[in-house]
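Standup notes
- DV: blocked on the single-chain target, sequence here:
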Amino acid sequence: MAGLDFFTIGQIVAPHGVRGDVRIYPDTDFPKRFLQMKYGYIDGKKYEVAAARLHKRVVLMKFVGVDDRNAAELLRGKELQVPREDLMPLKEGQHYIFDIIGMTAYDLQDVKLGTVTDVLRTGSNDVYVVTDDEGKEMLFAAIPDVVKSIDEESGKMVLDPPEWVDE
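- DV (later): unblocked, structure below
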């Protein structure tokens, strides 16, 4: 499948039972998405989903052709991925982290602050790590008072840094 970008939505952590089911730790804000999946990719190979159900904090999934515990054991530690077109649609103003990382950040006067190099997931809100050309990191809360605009097409983010941020 040359040309497809794959995105990880879960990590296969262990077999479950003796009939080939696997336990998947979801790496998505949409765990119910697993219940509607028709297929997923593991190591670039397409696997048809035979069944899926939520169980506590994991997803129990059965793939066609993975029919016993030994076959399921071979999938342990692998990432379950989907192509971009199978990602869950986001609401207006929401963005996937992988689309944020790499954006160029500017202040309100269109002065380049740096590049978004990481997104920290905190309990209250995300924090964007912006690294300038000298390697200095600045942290910006991903809240409307600070993040004024994000344009995925141009790769540009406009920030209104708090007064205490040294630029």
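- Follow-up: The first helix runs from residue 69 to 73.
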